[in-house]
Amino acid sequence: MRYKKRVSFHSSPLPPYRGDLNLLSKDIRAWLEDGYKISIVIPDPGQARRIQQLMMERNLEIDIKSSFNDSGISPLSIIIGDIGRGFIIEERKEVIISDRDIFRVYRTRKKKELSSFKEKIKNWNELKEGDYVVHIDYGIGKFKGLVTLEVMGKKGDYFQVNYKDSDRLYVPLSQLDRLHKYIGDSENPPPIYNLEGGQWELTKRRVEKATRELASSLLKLYSIRKAKPGYSFSPDTSWQLEFEASFPYQETPDQLNATYQVKKDMESPFPMDRLICGDSGYGKTEVAIRASFKAVMDNKQVAVLVPTTILADQHYRTFSQRMSRYPVRIEMLSRFQLPGEQKKIIQDLKEGKVDIVIGTHRLLQKDIKFKDLGLVIIDEEQRFGVIQKKKLKELRKTVDVLTLSATPIPRSLYMALMGIYRLSTISSPPLERQNVEIEVAEYNEEIIRQAILREISRGGQVFYLYNRVKDIQKIAQKIKRILPHINLCIAHGQMSSSKLEKTIIEFIHGKYDLLVCTSIIESGIDMPNVNTLIVENAEQFGLADLYQLRGRVGRGKRKGYAYFLFKPEKALTEQAKRRLQIIHQFKGPGSGLKIAMEDLHIRGAGNLLGKEQHGHIAAVGFTLYSQLLAEEIKKLKGEKVEPSFPFHIEVGVEARIPSSYVPYPDQRMQLYTRIGEIGNEDQLLEFKEELRDRFGPL
């Protein structure tokens, strides 16, 4: 590259402001009085608007410009860009300030977001040949794949569904919204009828009556929450904007949207009950931290409920670090505290001296009293027992509740789908996050040896999970026999709190290469240097547990590896096989909601609403049942329900994706589904660009 002109000048560094915006504004005024031109360089437009508002609150007029080349730059401007650190050029009377100078953060450079990150939640049920499907108008059949037919001289692609007595239905692409994958009774195949005869219509009418009755009972909880006015939190303060601006990473669009939805709920006059579904490490905790800060700004107390002492300790450290510059008192209640410490914290909670308390189920015991509780955050609700869930249900009637989960429990997910709970999804991964490589295999010591050696050779550490405490010492000895030179330690829930904490801290600090542990590591532990996970007897875990465990590795820029090892094939039950197949199938980012939906299928969707509804769900499938129930709920709430009619548009031209362009039927099916989801011209142009990139000119 040839430079037109070389410029030499002397510069001096800026002082670190460490988030002190009053000191920054004082320096800016002094520079302006001396005739300096000042540019604040911020990488994100949303962040830039927050900085602009904070400066204007300090009576500093400031514009936002897209680049340094923008004409008419005023003496004080915010420039959209990214620089490492700021500096002062005395001879040119110019000051450049970076966000790192203001907040002392080291921000991950923003890469171009790939459209592939925008996984569609409704694609969790991709169809495969042989699957049972439900057509709203014709009933349950077996999906046979994509076929090309010539109708009235025009070729077109159709989805073929087979019914009883060789009846066949060919569904045109314009009616794919009327076809769903069947989810119902996982033990027994669903009934398949003829296309004619009226049996399907009779079944639908019977289920519609049942959903009407269930809708009425479900709405009682909804009505209680609406009838009891909650606390309406104030709009964001300047401290809130300043606090959010100091976040040291680039927020994902889903993360920002979830934060907006939570704060909007908090400002409403009704108690919040929102479920945030997102993979481990996708930013759910930061959303919870911002909600907590907002509650504290209104002098309300916050309770953060977590399933394990280790996760409580991690959240305590994260919350404390984020809020260290503000007068917020954060405490932790778990077995890591001595009885005397617990007693003092409990008393201070009662007197309102503690703003945020983070703890295990200890927070639900009778001796815990709050002076003014405003927000309860539940992390991984599925890990709590029946008694704890009953107490949580009572809390939901009176205070704002925010639930965080990678794989929500079926009932919570269902209530969210029905509109009783509100649902936010964080499905876009953090920048530079790589997919975790998953291997499902029979137990093999050579696989174990190679996996451990590869991770240690790149300077990383390993989790080896074995979930039976009484045999865990033998497992550690076995690993020592396979690899005598490695340093390993053991952690499980039956250890004393002091020994467990000491072991975990030493492992985090790199004293050991490998941690032999139980599922105590399942929830939320963030150890970026641990990027290989080996699970022995993986067939004994539930689907949600397997997915949670997968999220323990690959949380940074380095690629993660997860090995799920099972007993010989003959020892596996059908459900265990299915669980292992699914965890291997859904490797992509943001698959937690898909996993939760598949969990519904394996368990039998009827179980979550009781025996009386099981037969109805089995008769029409979970998707149609949910649709009918949602319509009944809308009617009882007085909302308008649009009638659903089948229609077919004949455009007089051959409209299909030819096999010469996309040769594989599975790919064409996926593309047809994507076409049906396009909602505006921008999405259409983006899709066309993707087609050109993948398959060539259109």
From TrEMBL:
Instruction: Name one molecular function that GO assigns to this entry.
Output: damaged DNA binding
Gene3D superfamilies noted in UniProt: 2.40.10.170, P-loop containing nucleotide triphosphate hydrolases, Transcription-repair-coupling factor, D7 domain
Start and end residues of each Helicase ATP-binding domain: 265-426
Pfam families, A to Z? CarD_TRCF_RID, DEAD, Helicase_C, TRCF
GO biological process assignments: DNA repair
Q: Which UniProt keywords apply?
A: ATP-binding, Cytoplasm, DNA damage, DNA repair, DNA-binding, Helicase, Hydrolase, Nucleotide-binding
Does the keyword field hold Lyase?
Answer: no
Annotated membrane-spanning segments are none
Q: Is DNA damage one of the keywords UniProt gives this record?
A: yes
Where in the numbering of this chain does the Helicase C-terminal domain appear? 435-601
Query: Which NCBIfam families would you find in this protein's record?
Result: mfd (TIGR00580)
Q: What is the protein name for this chain?
A: Transcription-repair coupling factor
Which organism is this entry from?
Answer: Aerophobetes bacterium
Supply the gene name. mfd
